[in-house]
Predict the structure of BHLH domain-containing protein.
Amino acid sequence: MSSRRSRISEEEIKELISNLQFLLPESRRRQAATRVSAAKLLKETCNYIESLHREVDDLSDRLTELLATMDITSAQAEIVRSLLRS
């Protein structure tokens, strides 16, 4: 294995930024002709990932509350937990 880092070409960076822009809901709503800077796109990406983390946490909390109120056996609860882990 070489100790040298593999370099990413400017064209590859542009392609990655374009792909990233397509993945972000806010960026998709913009007109295709509207270009944003890579820095702004990366900031939007970080904000979007943070919002996804908050949503996952919220859904997890809600599921925990729901499971706590359900009258299910421990075997059934374990099945639900195993499904959530996969």
